[in-house]
């Protein structure tokens, strides 16, 4: 009787258990839009994901490195997403988070027990007992566990997104620093060339007997000062490039090809017109850090629900057994057990969750306040830098150039001398340095706003397959 | 109008009635003065003075008094083509018209102030009643804008004199307010002069690119002028060979000027003290005319185009830089390339001197500042003259030769320096 029936039960059981053991990650593990787009973009064309050796081979001309030509910071960010070890690390973290949610969807494995008992009289067959035990809590809390796992996954994604946003911000800043420092170095080189021309001219004037040593030393001192300034500017440029390389995981000889100057400050800039309230709205929608804190709060709520469910269900298990007696008679055994919530009723976990929630709420308030202030400062900096850069570019530099033209006309009429002309040329370079400083301040403020409002990562994601 | 016409025009006004510019503000005697016809007359007991680039102030006789009208006003002035300023002067010019009268004349001079600030006129060196001396606050209240005042006095002397404001004097003189006041002796000169010229020396601070003189400058003036003109725009002094020529020079600039004449030894015959007794005359080729002084230089003209100039060399330059690097002997061939990379258009100058400056300017490839004359200029029959400022020519022609201010002297054969292949070998040096 039991033969055919028990075989049937066993078969059903096996099928059921097989069905419970998921082989594919659940659809809940899908990534949120920017991350999904980024991961899809990287995987879209595996050929594009070049190895660092391929990416950094020196170009045949001017020593440029193929694949490292970054005329704007976005190109560097895209390259980083496709190639930088830090992004690989972040994607691995995402995969780990996906595995976690998969893991949460699974049930606890059933316990199987097999025992043999020697016959009492030394005759007959060994008594055999086989049993299968399955915990009930996993069955009954699966949906809550999945809810919590989804919440954790969301938090994990936002954590990665926050890291990625910060990383992209760092790349943008490093790109700006690298370009600005090169631009400044070029201006310092101009200043040095001017001082050198002054010195050379002074040497000739002194050689002709028309300049005393005291006056000559003034030019020699200025030359030395500009030489030191150029050296410092070179060091700053080298360090800035090194920082960019470090961020992107490049070797020192893998030199990116950068433009000679920062982009000009745009004539009209919507973000400059944006007020703090509008920027805060964007931040609350897109900034990973603020979203992370919100979702962490949800995660704590899910964890609380799980604990309450687990405690309320009086965790138990069911057992199914088959016993073969010494006389070969077979019997079916059924059983069950429950945990008695006498000592651990989950109250300690609940207290911890409550404290975590309070902490998160405080962090959310703090993050909002900090973001609002930082946005306000960034907008102020941006507006100021816009005006100052515009003034220097549209007014000061043309004025200095005009002064130089007029001075040259005076020189032509022997009303002014060569030293005076070169001094005015220095002033043009000084104005250029000032312009670079204001332009850099503008783009850094812009970069900070992009980070704070969280729209930088979304914009990068929208650029597609990173080619 | 060319220079010849200008001189002829100035001469035609001599001894005439009244200047048409003498605008009066009310229909009074001044109005009549302004509208009177100019009537040249030959009945002058003296050789009239010619003021190169200027003119003589017309007058009329009224009840035995010689009446003049000076109008202090802002004027547009050109030192030479290329440099114009808003100056202050009299009757539309700087210097103001030359006043010419005769010892013993009773003169009545109306002075109308069309400036925006008070003024007076001081009759420099004239012997006159205290109340007519024109010193603001001391001899009279200053003439307010819009007012007309009258100065009346008898000319008790003769000589070469000047007039200028004595109210905000530094500014008003720096702006160009001055003029010559020539008093001929009642009895004619002996020997008589055939031509009588008046030159008033002055200095100006017209900074490159500006259009109004800077009155606060004490030393570094840009322009040195004769009758408020700079060479090569100063009209030459014309004469016939053998003529007796007098050049009256007054100095209302801030520097003394050693005036040097080529070609003759002139007699210094007078000053603002009048014509000197013959025994005080002295032969000179250079006469220092101090600030506030006048000197009369007389000579018998010798054919040629003879320079007359201040011998302070920088006074025969136009606008030039001060405290600039001395580039004489400075080899800039290498450094110039470097500088041109920084300042396109830079051209080294001055290694072998400054004469290349005029060459560059004349070639037209060196643009200068707005409203500024090049330091040197002037083209003679044989090339660049490399002069400016207080420099002019006395052009003397033989009878029968055209008296053309624009023409050049034809040098008789055998009387001009000439080039040889080299000095004789045995010539000591």
Describe the structure.
The complex is a heterodimer of chains A (467) and B (429). Chain A has 467 residues and is α+β, with helices and mostly antiparallel strands. Chain A has one domain: Up-down Bundle (Outer membrane efflux proteins (OEP)). Helices cover 69% and strands 7% of the residues of chain A. Chain A has 13 helices and 4 strands. In chain A, β3 and β4 form a beta hairpin. Chain A is elongated, with a radius of gyration of 36 Å. Chain B is mainly beta and 429 residues long. Among the domains of chain B are: 176 residues, Sandwich (Immunoglobulin-like); 52 residues, no CATH class. In chain B, strands 1, 11, 12, 14, 16, 17, 18 and 20 form an 8-stranded mixed β-sheet that branches. In chain B, strands 2, 3, 4, 6 and 8 form a 5-stranded mixed β-sheet that branches. The longest helix of chain B has 10 residues. The chains are: A alpha+beta (467), B mainly beta (429). At the A-B interface, α6, α11 and α12 of A face α4 and α5 of B.
In short:
With 467 residues, chain A is of the alpha+beta class. In chain A, 69% of the residues lie in helices and 7% in strands.
Task: Tell how many strands the DSSP assignment of chain B holds.
Answer: 24
Measured distance between first and last alpha carbons of chain B: 51 Å
Strand content of chain A: 5-15%
**What is the CATH C level class of chain A, in words?**
Mainly Alpha
Second CATH tier, the architecture of the domain at 3-178 in chain B: Sandwich
Supply the number of helical segments of chain A.
13
Helix content of chain B: under 10%
Assigned CATH architecture of chain A: Up-down Bundle
> Structural class of the helix and strand makeup of chain A?
alpha+beta
Number of domains of chain A: 1
Roughly what is the average pLDDT of chain B, rounded to an integer? 89
Q: What series of H and E elements makes up the topology of chain A?
A: HHHHHEEHHHHHEEHHH
Radius of gyration of chain A: 36 Å
CATH topology of the domain at 3-178 in chain B: Immunoglobulin-like
End-to-end span of chain A in angstroms? 69 Å
Largest sheet geometry of chain B: 8 strands, mixed
């Amino acid at each position: 009787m039991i033969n055919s029936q028990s075989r049937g039960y066993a078969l059903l059981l096996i099928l059921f258990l097989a069905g419970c053991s998921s082989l594919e990650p659940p659809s809940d593990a899908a990534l949120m839009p920017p991350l999904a787009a980024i991961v899809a973009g990287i995987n879209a064309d595996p050929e594009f994901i070049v190895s660092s050796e391929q990416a950094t081979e020196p170009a045949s001309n001017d020593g440029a490195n193929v694949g490292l030509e970054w005329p704007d910071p976005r190109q560097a960010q895209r390259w980083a997403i496709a190639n930088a070890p830090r992004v690989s690390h972040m994607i691995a973290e995402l995969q780990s988070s996906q595995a976690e949610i998969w893991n949460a969807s699974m049930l606890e494995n059933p316990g199987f027990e097999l025992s043999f008992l020697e016959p009492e009289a030394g005759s007959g067959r060994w008594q055999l007992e086989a049993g299968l035990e399955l915990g009930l809590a996993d069955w009954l809390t699966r949906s809550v566990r999945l809810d919590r796992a989804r919440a954790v996954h969301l938090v994990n994604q936002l954590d990665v997104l926050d890291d990625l946003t910060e990383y992209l911000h760092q790349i943008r800043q490093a790109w700006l620093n690298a370009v600005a420092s090169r631009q400044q170095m070029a201006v310092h080189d101009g200043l040095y060339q001017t001082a050198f021309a002054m010195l050379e001219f002074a040497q000739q004037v002194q050689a002709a007997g028309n300049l005393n040593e005291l006056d000559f030393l003034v030019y020699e001192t200025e030359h030395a000062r500009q030489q030191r300034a150029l050296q410092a500017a070179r060091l700053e440029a080298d360090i800035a490039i090194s920082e960019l390389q470090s961020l992107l995981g490049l070797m020192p000889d893998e030199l990116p090809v950068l433009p000679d100057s920062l982009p000009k400050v745009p004539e009209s800039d919507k973000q400059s017109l944006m007020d703090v309230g509008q920027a805060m709205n964007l931040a609350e929608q897109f900034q990973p850090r603020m979203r992370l804190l919100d979702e962490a709060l949800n995660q704590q709520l899910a964890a609380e629900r799980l604990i309450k469910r687990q405690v309320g269900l009086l965790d138990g298990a069911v057992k199914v057994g088959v016993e073969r007696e010494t006389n070969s008679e077979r019997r079916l055994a059924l059983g069950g057990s429950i945990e008695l919530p006498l000592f651990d009723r989950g109250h300690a976990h609940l207290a911890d969750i409550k404290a975590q929630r309070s902490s998160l709420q405080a962090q959310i308030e703090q993050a909002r306040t900090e973001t609002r202030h930082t946005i306000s400062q960034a907008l102020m900096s941006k507006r100021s830098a816009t005006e100052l850069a515009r003034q220097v570019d549209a007014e000061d530099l043309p004025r200095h150039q005009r002064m130089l033209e007029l001075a040259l006309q005076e020189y032509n009429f022997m009303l002014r001398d060569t030293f005076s002309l070169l001094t005015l040329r220095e002033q043009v370079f000084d104005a250029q340095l000032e312009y670079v400083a204001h332009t850099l301040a503008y783009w850094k403020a812009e970069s900070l706003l992009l980070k704070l409002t969280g729209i930088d990562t979304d914009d990068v994601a929208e650029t597609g397959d990173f080619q | 109008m060319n220079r010849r016409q200008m001189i002829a025009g100035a001469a035609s006004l001599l001894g005439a009635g009244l200047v048409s510019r003498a605008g009066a503000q009310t229909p009074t005697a001044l109005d009549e003065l302004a509208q009177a016809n100019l009537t040249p007359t030959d009945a002058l007991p003296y050789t009239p003075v010619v003021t190169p680039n200027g003119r003589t102030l017309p007058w009329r006789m009224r009840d035995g008094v010689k009446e003049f009208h000076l109008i202090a006003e802002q004027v547009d002035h050109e030192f030479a083509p290329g440099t114009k300023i808003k100056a202050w002067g009299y009757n539309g010019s700087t210097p103001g018209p030359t006043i010419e009268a005769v010892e013993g004349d009773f003169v009545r001079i109306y002075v109308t102030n069309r400036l925006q600030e008070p003024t007076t006129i001081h009759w420099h060196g004239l012997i006159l009643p205290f109340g007519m001396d024109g010193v603001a606050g001391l001899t009279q209240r200053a003439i307010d804008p819009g007012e007309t005042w009258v100065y009346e006095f008898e000319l008790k002397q003769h000589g070469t004199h000047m007039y200028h404001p004595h109210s905000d004097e530094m500014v008003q003189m720096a702006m160009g307010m001055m003029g010559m006041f020539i008093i001929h002796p009642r009895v004619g000169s002996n020997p008589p002069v055939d031509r009588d010229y008046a030159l008033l020396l002055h200095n100006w601070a017209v900074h490159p690119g500006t259009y109004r003189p800077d009155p606060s400058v004490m030393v570094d003036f840009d322009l040195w002028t004769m009758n408020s003109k700079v060479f090569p725009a100063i009209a030459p002094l014309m004469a016939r060979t053998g003529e007796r020529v007098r050049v009256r020079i007054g100095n209302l600039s801030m520097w003394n000027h050693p005036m040097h004449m080529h070609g003759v030894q002139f007699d210094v015959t007078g000053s603002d003290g009048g014509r000197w007794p013959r025994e005080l005359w002295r032969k000179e080729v250079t006469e220092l005319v101090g600030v506030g002084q006048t000197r009369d230089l007389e000579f018998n003209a010798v054919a040629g185009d003879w320079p007359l100039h201040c011998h302070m060399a920088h006074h025969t330059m136009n606008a030039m830089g001060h405290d600039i690097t001395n580039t004489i002997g400075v080899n800039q061939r290498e450094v110039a390339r470097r500088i041109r990379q920084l300042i396109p258009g830079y051209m080294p100058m001055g290694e072998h001197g400054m004469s290349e400056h005029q060459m560059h300017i004349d070639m037209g490839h060196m643009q200068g500042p707005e409203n500024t004359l090049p330091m040197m200029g002037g083209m003679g029959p044989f090339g660049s003259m490399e002069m400016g400022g207080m420099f002019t020519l006395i052009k003397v022609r033989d009878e029968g030769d055209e008296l053309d201010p624009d023409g050049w002297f034809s040098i008789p054969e055998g009387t001009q320096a000439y080039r040889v292949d080299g000095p004789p070998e045995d010539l000591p040096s």
